[in-house]
Design a protein that fits this description.
By secondary structure, the protein is an alpha/beta fold. Helix content is 37%, strand content 22%. The strands form 2 sheets. The chain has a 6-stranded parallel sheet, with helices on both faces. The protein has a 4-stranded mixed sheet with strand order 1-4-2-3. Helix 2 links the parallel strand 2 and strand 3.
């Protein structure tokens, strides 16, 4: 069996990979089930010259470790990490202030994928993660991202704190997500910004937090005092979006 990082499955994920022009080596479709979505995947694959094999459900189950493959699986080139400069260039090409999501030791690949998907929908220019002690671009993360990895660059760096220092010199300022901060709705989140989201249990590390310009939080009204990391990230991203667009409404 291939390295899991080289396998995509699920109708939305494979469709988005085809649409984005990702390098797909081979596609496997469930034999005898050529409904609308799978038929469209087959036609697009043939159009792009990609080999398509029709296989049994047991074969698809084996290739995807019995995940919810929805009748389709694709072998791709391994997801490649971008460079930090690629993310900045993306912002420049769009004529926008950089909006980058920094993840400080997110260990759950489901959270990583969900955050990447939210980053894409919110228009963030990229995501930066550390090389060590954190989830990477695995099959599980790719599945949770639902195709967003084909559009949103993810850079992996050796030292998150050092990268923050370097980007500060290039004009970015940094907001650290932490329960002890000021409410995000009362803060200025416009301009070139890096939004730092911490580990699921420990939050943002003290060293990284110290390097941020200020601390921001989401007001809590119920008995539960904290949000899932990916949910918190999505809320804060959209507060950035709201503030960036307030003058355009």
């Amino acid at each position: 069996m291939r390295d899991a990082a080289n396998i995509l499955f699920g109708r939305n994920t494979v469709t988005e990979a085809l649409r984005s022009g990702a390098t797909i080596e081979r596609i496997f479709l469930l034999d005898g089930n050529h409904d609308g979505v799978l038929g469209a995947i087959f036609k697009e694959a043939k159009k792009q010259g990609i080999r398509v094999d029709f296989v049994t459900k047991s074969r698809l189950d084996e290739m995807t470790d019995r995940a919810a493959h929805q009748g389709v699986c694709a072998y791709t080139a391994a997801f490649s990490y971008a460079e930090v400069d690629d993310i900045l260039k993306r912002a420049e090409e769009k004529g926008e202030d950089p909006f980058i999501i920094f993840l400080d030791d997110i260990v759950d690949p489901h959270n990583l994928g969900a955050i990447i998907r939210s980053a894409n929908v919110a228009g963030a220019h990229g995501v930066i993660i550390p090389k060590n002690n954190a989830a990477g671009l695995t099959e599980t993360a790719a599945k949770a991202a639902e195709g967003a990895l084909s559009y949103t660059p993810v850079a992996r760096v050796t030292n998150l704190g050092r990268t923050i220092d370097e980007l500060k010199e290039r004009g970015l300022w940094f907001a650290c997500a932490d329960m002890g901060g000021e409410p995000c709705f009362t803060q200025n989140l416009t301009g070139p910004i890096g939004l730092v989201i911490g580990n699921e249990g420990k939050g943002v590390s003290p060293l990284v937090k110290k390097k941020c310009d200020f601390v921001t939080s989401i007001p809590v009204r119920g008995e539960i005092e904290s949000l899932n990391a990916s949910v918190a990230a999505g809320i804060l991203m959209y507060e950035v979006v709201r503030q960036r667009n307030v003058d355009k409404a």
